[in-house]
Amino acid sequence: MTNKRITHHPILGSLDKQSTVSFTFDGKEYTGLENDTIASALMANGVRTLRKHEFSGNPRGIYCNIGHCFECRVTVNGKENIRACLTPIVHDMVVESGQVQPSPLDPTNEVLPKTYEDYEKMGGNQ
User: Minimal CA–CA distance to 39: which of 67, 8, 6?
Assistant: First the structure.
């Protein structure tokens, strides 16, 4: 594992005492810290490409990291269009990329959850 994480911050303090969480991304197992988002856990592990652009097929990654841009959409436990920057990792979560995600702005799409919490509220992960 390539650890790109800042473990000590002059204001936020040390992150060494947080629990780790295991999850998979495209079939490979990774670990992140408890309360990490998918995006922050992947960035800490050196992963930058999360999906392909709908039209060009170019690689897309984490852009705004605050939920505004939709660039970080991935598939979580079989549910498409989940924003990695807003969704916390949970133990044994299965995250996939590579597939072209449906546009979140297309009015013909069904209502899709935007976070893993929304996904669970809609009856996912049962």
Answer: 67
pTM for the whole thing? 0.71
Q: Where are the domains of the chain?
A: 19-100+111-121
For the domain spanning 19-100+111-121, the CATH number is: 3.10.20.440
Could you tell me the pLDDT band of residue 1, with boundaries at 50, 70 and 90?
very low
**CB distance 72 to 116 below 8 Å:** no
Using CA atoms, how far apart are residues 123 and 71, in angstroms rounded to an integer?
25
Query: Does pLDDT of 37 surpass 70?
Result: yes
Q: Work out the average pLDDT over 93-103.
A: 78
DSSP helix, strand, coil percent of the chain (3-state; round to 5): 10, 30, 60
**HSE toward the beta carbon, residue 50, CA cutoff 13 A:** 27
d(CA 39, CA 83): 8
